[in-house]
Amino acid sequence: MSLPQIRSAIQSILQAVDPDSQIHDFERWEDDADNIAALFQRNSGDPFRGWVFKPVSREEFMLSHTSTRIAYVFELRFLRSVEDAQGSEKLVWDVHLEPAIAAFKQSVDLDGAAWSTGPVGGGSEYALQVDSVLYTKAGGVLCHFAKCHLTVHVQASLPA
After folding, report:
1. pTM of full prediction above 0.70
2. What strand order describes the sheet that includes 141-157?
3. Domain topology for 3-157
């Protein structure tokens, strides 16, 4: 249940549910428009579609005199270029966000990489949470920008 295993599991889940999107397990940004396009397009001329995720916080709680629970909060951001004629605003939800939410609900333990992404210790959050869907520009391209978060719980043993 290491951080690299958690990253790999999140990446695998996103890739399975959203195979046409670029998936990055760390912050990716460029000043140059062509380099931005390379990060978020499969092929030249394709719409921007991509996920970027990273851990943004960590808390640790005592469970017993031998173990702790670590809660990592991952921020997941989704970017898709606006295509008004195709109704891209609806596609952000119907094709990308809702399937991702469902996939994380199906794998609450991230395929064994975590203890749980569900409620632990009285919490009520369950799987992937969507915080906002706004607009931004990336490489001069107007894009939908979804900001989500996922709390991942792992259990750790205390040193003897």
Report:
1. yes
2. 22-24, 49-62, 67-81, 141-157, 129-138
3. STM4215-like (3.30.2000)
